[in-house]
Structures are given as structure tokens and as C-alpha cells.
Amino acid sequence: MTSADSTRPVRLAVVSAGLSEPSSTRLLADRLAEATRVALREEGVEAEAGVVELREVATQIAHNFVTGFADARLREAIEQVTEADGLIAVTPVFSASYSGLFKSFFDVLDKDALAGKPVLLGATGGTPRHSLVLEHAMRPLFAYLRAVAAPTAVYAATDDWAARDDDFSRRIARAGGELASLVAPHAAAGTSPTAEPDVVPFEQQLAALRVEE
């Protein structure tokens, strides 16, 4: 990666579906965001992270399903996510899957809103046995939305926060580095990760071929 042509900071949107305050879900989201910023900084790229706490717009999300209308507060949250260069999405585990609030937020987005957008996935739960939620639930969801998920997803069980070894921290650092690798080229080019490539009209391509002949 190179930052020589970087024109603006990378914009990260951090979506946390934690229900309590403070929450382990928000704590994991913050650590993933910081790991991404550190990895970008090492490449000379600055980053800004904005947090969307879904519990703060839960009522607005429910109203959107009933009325089909997003009020100003929900629109702001949606725009923060859709206009970001990269997304960090973290949910608590409920009934062996992502929470209903988490799913509901992504259900109100336009079906193409996350196409091509780099995303780092995270989840929290009481025990390690729920860690596969990242692969059997979250990754398929974002694949359906055509987002580009980082290879490493991070699950945090209760014991991980008190672990004496550095495996948990290494997983977070690796995941942040992967997201940084996905978003930095877009920042260097000054483009959105979902920007459409320039298309040369067929007539121009044909004319060029005739000149070469």
C-alpha cells in the first residue's frame, strides 16, 4: 500500500449491536477500529472512525419497517455506513446467530448499498462454542449483500477479555491489518470502494482498432 497520493483520511463506519452500556460488543468494535487505524497509520494513511450504536436507533428501525420511512436519525446512521470506505460490524450472539437488531438494521439498507464495500466481522458471546456464528451466519449475510469480508473475523467470549496469552490481541491485530489492506487503496486513489470503473464506449474501442490496422 502507499499513501503518497492519499487525499483524505480513510472513513470507517463501526456498527455495534450491543444492548448494554458499556457492552463487550462495543468494546470489541472499538478494539477492531483501533487495530485498523494502527495498521493504516503504519502505512502512512490516516483514518476516521464513526460509531453507529444500533440500540440508539432501534425504535427508528422498527418504525421504518412499518412505515417504509427512515427518519433523520436513522438516515444519518445509514449514510454513515453506506458512505464509509470500510465497515466494522459487531453483534452479540442470540440463539446461535446475530441479534435481531443487527439483522434489522442491515435489512433497511438498499440491497446494493454495501456492494464491494470492505467489512470486518466481529461477534461476542458468553462461551467459545458460539464462535462459528461468524461463518455460518454473519459471513453469508454479507456475502448476500455483496460486501467484501476480511478473511479474519473475530469472536470474543467472556474468557477472552481476561486471557493471559496474546492470541486474542493477535487475532484483533491481524483482522485490523486485513481491513486496512482492503480500504487503503481506495483512500489513496481518492475513490469510493463501490465506485463504478470508467467505461469506454464500444464505438471508441472500435475506432481505436481501425486506427491500429
UniProtKB/TrEMBL annotation:
<dbReference type="InterPro" id="IPR005025">
    <property type="entry name" value="FMN_Rdtase-like_dom"/>
</dbReference>
<feature type="domain" description="NADPH-dependent FMN reductase-like">
    <location>
        <begin position="11"/>
        <end position="159"/>
    </location>
</feature>
<dbReference type="Pfam" id="PF03358">
    <property type="entry name" value="FMN_red"/>
</dbReference>
<dbReference type="InterPro" id="IPR051814">
    <property type="entry name" value="NAD(P)H-dep_FMN_reductase"/>
</dbReference>
<keyword id="KW-0560">Oxidoreductase</keyword>
<keyword id="KW-0288">FMN</keyword>
<dbReference type="InterPro" id="IPR029039">
    <property type="entry name" value="Flavoprotein-like_sf"/>
</dbReference>
<dbReference type="InterPro" id="IPR023932">
    <property type="entry name" value="CE1759_FMN_reduct"/>
</dbReference>
<protein>
    <submittedName>
        <fullName>FMN reductase</fullName>
    </submittedName>
</protein>
<keyword id="KW-0285">Flavoprotein</keyword>
